[in-house]
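Q: Here's a chain of 119 amino acids. Please give me its 3D structure as tokens.
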Amino acid sequence: QVQLGESGGGLVQTGGSLRLSCAVSGRFSTIYAMGWYRQAPGKQRELVARIINGDSTNYADSVKGRFTISRDDAKNTVYLQMNSLKPEDTAVYYCNADIYYGFRRRDDWGQGTQVTVSS
């Protein structure tokens, strides 16, 4: 089993910045991709950013130019640098890892970390 440990959430003012971190620990073979999703009250969970092998990235249109996803393969950690935060960024942010266990592949999720952006 693996665990996804998230950190970096909190309360910031509009225009502020936060950096989210997510480290994968436990027994697994390789990590294919990692990403961040968020869910705001009354809305479905949505992709924020994802990074895969070769450092290919995918961002939600709403965060392009403001958020940057990166990874440290040696530490099995993904980061989400969030700049120019807006109240509409307020949500619970969930770390996701697409992980191989031998020949099996599955998604694993963190518990979520709250990001609140005040007006």
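Q: Can you summarize the key feature?
A: The chain has a mean pLDDT of 95.
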